Structure formats: C-alpha cells, structure tokens
Amino acid sequence: MLANHPDKEQIRLENVLTALGNPLRLTVVRVLAGGGEHACSAVLSGIPKSTLTHHWRVLRDSGVIWQRPFGRENLLSLRREDLDTRFPGLLDVLLGAVENDELTQESTTRNLPPLSSK
Amino acid sequence: MLANHPDKEQIRLENVLTALGNPLRLTVVRVLAGGGEHACSAVLSGIPKSTLTHHWRVLRDSGVIWQRPFGRENLLSLRREDLDTRFPGLLDVLLGAVENDELTQESTTRNLPPLSSK
Q: Do A107 and B26 count as a contact with CB atoms less than 8 A apart?
C-alpha cells in the first residue's frame, strides 16, 4: 500500500463523487482510463503546477488514482479494479457520459494533453 | 419549467457529482428514489432547517431534484427521467451502491426519516 492512499475497503462513494465533480479531475479519469501509468506532467495541459498538485491530492485521497514517485515526477494510474469492485458500473457510466454527453465531452476536452485530444 | 431549475439540457455531470458527493444529499436521493413527491420536512431527520435549505438548493441547482412550493412547504422529487436520459445508468449505479456497499449504506442511513429506515 502506498502512503496517503486509502485501502480499497476505505474508499467512500461520497469522496469519489466529490473528486469527480470537477471538469479537470474528470478529464484526468478520461486520460487514465486508457490504462497504464502516466507521468503527471503529461495528463492535463495548460494548468499551473500548484493547481495540478491540488487535483492529484483530491484524486489520490479519495481513492480514484494511484500516485507513485518515479524519478523527479509522479506516475498516475486509475484505480479501476478497486473502483469497479466497490462501485460496479460507476466508471463505465462516467466514461460513457464523457463519450456520449455533449456537455461532459466538451468540459473534459479543453485540457486534454495534445496526444489524447487527437 | 420551475424557476431556479436547470433545463434538462443544461444539467452538467460535474455539478450532479458534486451535489451527490455528500452523505446527506445521497440520502435524499435514496429517499426520493422510491418515487413521488415528498414534503421537504419529511426527507431527512435530525438536520437543522437552515442546513436543509442549503442542501435543497445544491440538489435543485445541479438538476438532481424538482422543488415546488406547496402551502407552507416545498415538495421534492427526483428528476429521474432527466438524469436517466442525460447520464444513463448513473442513478442505478448510485442506488446500487446505497443498497450493496456497506460504507455507502451506513452513511446514507443515519439521517433517514423514521418511516424510510424500517
């Protein structure tokens, strides 16, 4: 278990919903849903570093992402298995909205990194 | 359209998630999911009126509930059809967690009105 991450059993739905109730953090889920680990500098574009640090903390503390140090950076990945076990269908529903709901798609596209917005 | 309620097309996923990222407001959804209109004084128990007013506003402004004046009170109902149309599966997933996820069940039981907690 990494420091500052809740155990799977400690994740609370209300914290996950609060974490995802923000267009930038929903964008992060959109990017990480592709799988694997992403350098935190490559997940959102056009956002000041101090703001990013805040968003990583909210996502990590609520149990949405893993964050692990790697060299000078942190690597981020989605806790997909844990979230799917605790709240079956939640991520699929949210990713479905990102894909199919016009307003959600728009609000999670603005700060995509260049490669992901293709 | 009632005043202060977003149109169905204006509802934003991030606002809905923020609204529901709170155990009391998730309890409201749990109660209203049974259908019909509920007097706002009968939806949560043990909460001061000023706190309730705040929660109704967050739920109404985000598009989660309808709130309409009736005599000296307001009647509340879930915007189930609108939410199901905009974000298919979201309410079902959340209500599934309320039913099956121990932590979520616990945090949405504390302030149920006497009749609903049976």
A: no
pTM of the predicted model as reported, rounded to 2 decimal places:
0.94
Of B87, B89, B101, the CB nearest to A13: B101
Task: Name the minimum distance, in Å, from the CA of B7 to any CA of chain A.
Answer: 13
One-letter amino acid at A106 equals E
Distance (Å, whole) CA A75 – CA A29:
14
**Residue in A7, A13, A18, A105 to test binding to B, most B beta-carbons within 10 Å:** A13
Local structure of B110: helix, strand or coil: coil
Spatial contact of B65 and B28, defined as CB atoms under 8 Å apart: yes
Beta carbons of A33 and A95 less than 8 angstroms apart: yes
ipTM of the complex in this document = 0.93
**CA terminus-to-terminus distance, chain A:** 35
Long-range CB contact pairs, A45-48, < 8 A, 24+: A45/A111, A45/A112, A45/A113, A45/A114, A46/A110, A46/A111, A47/A111
Task: For residue B22, give both structure tokens.
Answer: 């709170």
Q: What are A75-117's pLDDT values in tens digits?
A: 999 999 999 999 999 999 999 999 999 999 999 999 998 865 4
- Nearest-CA distance B29 → chain A (Å): 13
